[in-house]
Amino acid sequence: MNKQTISLSIFFPAYNEEANIRNSVEAAEAVVSTLTSTYEIIIVDDGSKDDTGAIADEMAAKNKHIKVVHHNPNKGYGAALWSGIQAAQYDYIFFTDADLQFDFSELAILMHFVPDYKIVLGYRSPRRDNFLRIMNAALWNFLNRLLFGLKVKDIDCAFKLMDRKLVASLPLKTRGAMMSAEMLIRLQRKKIPFKEIPVSHYARVEGVATGAHPKVIIRAFKELFALFQSRLGALPREQMVRFTIVGIINTLIDLGLYVYFISRYHFFADHLIVAKIISFLAGTVSSFLFNRYWTFKKKTKLGITEIVRFYLTVAGGLALDLISLSLFLSLFHIHPIWAACMATLVAFIWNFTLMKLWVYSELTSLAPTRLNKIQLKAFSTIRSKRKYS
Ligand code: UDP
Ligand code: MG
Fold this sequence. Notes:
Spore Coat Polysaccharide Biosynthesis Protein SpsA, Chain A; 14 helices; 11% strand; binds uridine-5'-diphosphate
């Protein structure tokens, strides 16, 4: 595929963007018309209550490159993306928000990487949002990493260029704010490499952001858990079960050895703490090996860093177990057995998370590739030309 002949479908999900939609479409057209002669711009009016739909229709009537899809009533961000994907007809789709928070000229940077890459993702650098939004996003990225192994810098950055047929073939189930994550999880499962590019981000000037609305967040979490229950979540669920079984096995080894030592040997009966340390360490060795080869099935060569990370995690888990046990006992005055269960749960979450994402993490092969010198130069030229608003 020759670069000049790559055709592009750009679409904007738009909900109540009457103050922004015209400028967004014009900015898009100014850039896309320099990149390819075959393009379309699709406005997905997601049941707007303001004049967005009317403005979109008026623009489409005057320009054959512009199309409009209307939703009635509002269906949510993911559903708007889905309609855009369905309506698009060209080789690549590019979608971004209709609220002028991005710099369109940076689409040219993303275009550098197609068709070598089928998926080119922007990440906001720096992100112009308040602290709470940034924390929300960090938690969201973390959960998707933990539950689905998704490794991208900025899941919800609305600056994505993708091979249309590839995306349209995905059996996407969600229609809320989880949709971007689901799309990327499914692509990563197909081992499609991602190219990640830093893009500029600006604060919203006109209109109202809905991304942090409780309704949007609750729907996103419902979709996250539904997806975790589905086949997509099968692997981490299996890992959690195996991790629990390994935990039970090494507790039994620990206890069994301790009882054996102190009942068989006078030395250990006189030095209980030594018996405890040895049996505990034996338990950790079994835990390390079972988790490495059975729970997380790590394939790379065993290294000292991995062992150090493992013992740091175990030490942290032990400390957390004791601290939370004493906190639960002193603060909540609950039954010691309940307190112990809750403390064990805290330690379990800690251990599982760190083992999966740190000790046995093996996602390096899917890590974003770096820009080469020519790409960096093109990138800085475009970025230096942009207007700061
Ligand atoms: N949007 C949409 N349907 C909705 C909510 C939002 O199509 O139900 C559009 C909105 O017009 C914007 C994009 O999705 O173009 C992102 O929304 P917003 O800016 O509110 O999200 P945030 O930037 O706060 O995450
Ligand atoms: Mg926005």
